[in-house]
Design goal:
Its main location: membrane. The modification 4-aspartylphosphate is found at residue 522. It comes from Halomonas stenophila. Among the domains are: 72-189, PAS domain (Beta-Lactamase, 2-Layer Sandwich); 280-456, Heat Shock Protein 90 (2-Layer Sandwich); 467-590, 3-Layer(aba) Sandwich (Rossmann fold), CATH 3.40.50.2300; 627-708, Four Helix Bundle (Hemerythrin (Met), subunit A). The chain is 50% helix and 16% strand. The chain has 716 residues and is α/β, with parallel strands linked by helices. It is built from 23 helices and 20 strands. A hairpin with a 3-residue loop joins strand 13 (414-421) and strand 14 (425-433). Helix 9 (284-301) packs across helix 22. The N and C termini lie far apart (131 Å).
């Protein structure tokens, strides 16, 4: 064989040797390196038959090559060397590991498909001509080229970053190219996590910024009203009617501010895990009725239908936190009414798997309102968020209510689920994992008549009541109703027509050492309302019991009354047995007796009085002989109330019209005429909003039509 051919053959054997992996038992070791060297020396001797100095030089050269190869194989960086034809001369172990396979003979045009090489997005195939090694073979240097490797045999993508350089001979001729690349997958994973964390932080910051903007608006609006009306009250020429109107506006806006603060405090307690769950046995049946009675009026004021449906029998009593369940239901129902312009709001209740370990209650609030896109639902339960920024602008609100509800549901061991479609309405389902014995007393229907309501409350047992009660109430009908009920039980009742008179009478009696045994304080009166009157009494050292009477049956009203200094609160319309039980409790307490336990005093009177479509309206007390005379007197006076309301409407005295509607709302409910109470409540709302005169006129006409159907005779 010619000498030149022998040299070429030797070069090819060296290249082949460089491409051959070390033996599995000696890879990367000195023993493996020595074996390779001895093998190469033997090959050299057989090929060239050299001796002496030339043989030693050849041996040293191959020893250096072996060291170089071992170094390449031990590197963590991938190293690939290719000649000008795209044939790989070096392809180390790190390169094989990262690419997921050995070298290929497909040539540069097939590298991208063969090894699954993509742009950093992981979706777009990397063009072969743009690869760093290809560019190096074209004489160009490349730095920091990022490639995503999606190897066919590997599920996880690998990100690598590489630098490439051309290879030149001493005479300036290009021999090929080399690329060195390393795995940056971990770095990209950390970088992605940091970006996601940053995005979440920015979203949270944006949400809080929007919340602060919304809260600023929510706070500044009523605060501006409070400060503005307070300035107006400084006018010495102000008449009594305007003064009363301004005071009521201040109180109303102050209550709104307090509700905002309560929401924020509730949320902060929940986030700090400071909310306490107080479980006790209570009547679920009665709670659902109370909530329905409160929200039904609000729904009717907007012209919406409202219903409560039991799709399965419901347990009469359960053991849970009644206050928190009420808070959740009032919020869900309030939202449903707020975001529904027409149609209905329905509270659907069912009990699932009673008597088993998976027993639970589902209380679903369904509306026909604006609905929302499924993608917006997750944001609903994040603090400071609403489904759409436009929602805040149109409907107001802070975006805290649902976040509080879900946190409370979680604290109760339950959850809130949502199903909604844009323009089709929404359903919010409160799910409570609730132990329910299969022998528990079950209720088939939600309907409660007055007799059932009184049975649900602690039964009243007369103990020959005696004592003095001060009734602070500006409505004549309520004065007659409450005083008559109490006087028939043997109590002496004095009446104050406003807050100032109530304070004077209570302090005078205290100073004369003949204090009243109990003060019943209406919270909305002229001159000085019940909140101010109670606070003034406490500042003057009055320590006797004061029980609030209020038509504001919304969540948090009891807390507001207690904050003013009241000992308890009763919600109008007041059931006779509830009123007497509460009075008896306080009379026994101040005399050292054992008072009967009193359920939460927010118990309302029964459902609306009997009515048949557009037929007659009867009082829910029509079968109570003790109430017959009082109901008859109210019906006899009703035309006078109606005429006063029509006169005030005709001459445009809106303040007086609103006050008369408010008085009739409480009085009619107290005497058992709920349809009249609801119609009066709707009129009061329309007058307060005073958006359009036509709406006020229509509300007056509707109230007049309802009142014409009232009769004191019982249904046959």
């Amino acid at each position: 064989m010619p000498y030149e051919q022998q040299i070429a053959d030797m070069q090819e054997r060296i290249r082949r040797w460089l491409r051959t992996s070390p033996s599995p038992t000696a890879s990367g070791t000195l023993a493996g390196l020595d074996a390779d060297i001895l093998s190469l020396e033997s090959a050299l001797e057989s090929l060239f038959h050299v001796e002496g100095r030339h043989g030693q030089e050849a041996s040293n050269g191959f020893q250096q090559e072996a060291i170089f190869r071992t170094v390449l194989e031990s590197m963590v960086e991938g190293v690939i060397v290719a000649d000008m034809n795209g044939q790989f001369l070096v392809f180390n172990a790190a390169a094989r590991a990262m690419l997921g396979q050995d070298e290929t003979d497909s040539g540069p045009e097939g590298w991208s498909d063969q090894y699954g090489l993509f742009y950093p997005d992981g979706k777009t195939r990397f063009p072969p001509e743009e690869l760093a090694l290809t560019r190096a073979m074209q004489g160009q240097a490349m730095d920091d080229q990022e490639v995503v490797i999606l190897a066919p045999e590997r599920q996880e993508a690998i990100h690598v970053s590489g630098n490439a350089r051309p290879l030149w001979a001493a005479d300036g001729q290009q021999l090929g190219g080399v690329v060195v690349f390393h795995d940056i997958t971990g770095f990209r994973r950390v970088d992605r996590a940091l970006r996601e964390a940053r995005d979440r932080a920015e979203e949270a910051s944006q949400a809080k910024s929007e919340f602060l903007a919304n809260m600023s608006h929510e706070i500044r609006t009523p605060l501006t009203a409070v400060l503005g009306f307070a300035d107006l009250l400084l006018d010495p020429k102000l008449n009594e009617s305007d003064r009363l109107n301004y005071l009521q506006a201040i109180r109303r806006n102050g209550q709104h501010l307090l509700s905002l603060i309560n929401d924020i405090l509730d949320l902060s307690k929940l986030q700090a895990d400071k909310i306490q769950i107080e479980r006790a046995t209570f009547s679920l049946h009665q709670l659902l009725h109370e909530v329905a009675s409160i929200m039904q009026v609000r729904a009717y004021e907007k012209g919406l239908d409202f219903d409560v449906r039991y799709t399965t029998p419901m347990p009469r009593e359960i053991d849970n936190d009644v206050m928190r369940i009420r808070q959740i239901l009032l919020n869900l129902l309030g939202n449903a009414i707020k975001f529904t312009r027409e149609g209905e709001v329905v509270l659907t209740c069912r009990c699932l798997d009673p008597g088993t370990e998976s027993s639970r209650l589902e209380l679903a609030v369904t509306d026909t309102g604006i609905g929302m896109h499924p993608d917006d639902i997750d944001r609903l339960f994040q603090p400071f968020n609403q489904a759409n920024p436009a929602t805040t602008r149109e409907y107001g609100g802070t975006g805290l209510g649902l976040a509080i509800c879900r946190s409370l549901a979680d604290a109760l061991g339950g959850d809130i689920r949502v199903d909604s479609s844009p323009g089709q309405g929404s359903t919010f389902i409160l799910v409570l994992d609730q132990p329910i014995d299969d022998r528990a007393e079950m209720v088939e229907s939600h309907m409660l008549h007055q007799s059932e309501l009184e049975a649900e409350a602690e039964p009243f047992t007369s103990r020959d009541l005696s004592g003095r009660v001060l009734l602070a109430e500006d409505g004549h009908d309520n004065q007659v109703l409450v005083s008559t009920i109490l006087q028939r039980e043997g109590l002496k009742v004095d009446i104050a027509g406003d807050g100032e008179e109530a304070v004077d009478k209570a302090l005078t009696a205290m100073n004369a050492e003949t204090p009243y045994d109990l003060v019943l304080m209406d919270m909305q009166m002229p001159r000085l309302d019940g909140y101010g009157a109670t606070a003034k009494l406490r500042r003057k050292g009055y320590s006797g019991p004061v029980v609030a009477l209020t038509a504001h049956a919304m969540s948090g009203e009891r807390e507001r009354c207690l904050a003013a200094g009241c000992d308890d609160y009763l919600s109008k319309p007041i059931a006779r047995t509830v009123l007497l039980t509460a009075v008896q409790s306080y009379l026994l307490r101040i005399r050292g007796g054992e008072p009967p336990p009193v359920e939460e005093a927010a118990t309302t009177a029964g459902e609306s009085g009997e009515t048949d479509g557009e037929g007659r309206i009867y009082s829910s007390y029509s079968d109570d002989p003790d109430m017959a005379d009082l109901v008859h007197q109210f019906v006899e006076r009703l035309p006078i109330h109606v005429q006063d309301i029509r006169t005030a409407a005709d001459i445009g005295e809106l303040d007086r019209l609103r006050r008369l509607a408010h008085q009739l709302k409480g009085a009619a409910g107290g005497y058992g005429f709920q349809p009249v109470s609801r119609a009066a409540a709707k009129l009061e709302t329309k007058v307060r909003e005073a958006d359009q005169a036509s709406e006020v006129t229509e509300a007056v006409s509707q109230l007049v039509r309802v009142c014409r159907r009232v009769t004191h005779a019982g249904p046959e």
